[in-house]
Design a protein that fits this description.
This protein has a single domain (3-123), classed as 3-Layer(aba) Sandwich (Trna Endonuclease, Chain: A, domain 1). The protein has a four-stranded mixed sheet with strand order 1-2-3-4, with helices on both faces. It is 40% helix and 14% strand. By secondary structure, the chain is an alpha+beta fold.
Length: 125
């Protein structure tokens, strides 16, 4: 298992635990775009709508504009490890989502930073 997969699994595990106290955490989900797959599985997923560059995690909870913070339709996070650069497809998706009113971010190597970003997003009221 690659570090990025481990990082993502630990974030989802922590979100599941936090969901016992705050239901909003239960709506965090992974978009299964990356990973090594058998070519037949990859082709099937592509036919089903998997898109290159879509961020790894999504929290589909809108946030109001308050205290100088922008309003957002939801949160998308791209997880990277070892300072890997974003691909052109990832950059294009992140910019598209920003333009559509979503809060987006890229977080490198730190599951705790991912959790902190989600906490910030949920609590900026």
């Amino acid at each position: 298992m690659q570090y990025e997969e481990i990082m993502q699994a630990s974030v989802i595990s922590a979100a599941d635990l936090r969901g016992n106290q705050d239901e909003r955490w239960k709506y965090l989900y992974h978009v299964p775009n990356g990973g090594d797959r058998d070519p037949r599985v990859g082709a099937k997923m592509k036919r089903q709508g998997v898109r290159r560059g879509v961020p790894d995690l999504c929290l589909p909870i809108a946030r109001p504009a308050v205290n100088g913070f922008a309003a957002y339709h939801g949160l998308y996070l791209e997880l990277k490890c070892r300072k890997q650069p974003l691909s052109e497809d990832q950059e294009r998706w992140l910019q598209f989502l920003r333009d559509q009113g979503y809060c987006v971010g890229t977080i490198y190597d730190e599951p705790l930073e991912v959790l902190a970003a989600i906490e910030w997003y949920l609590d900026h009221e």
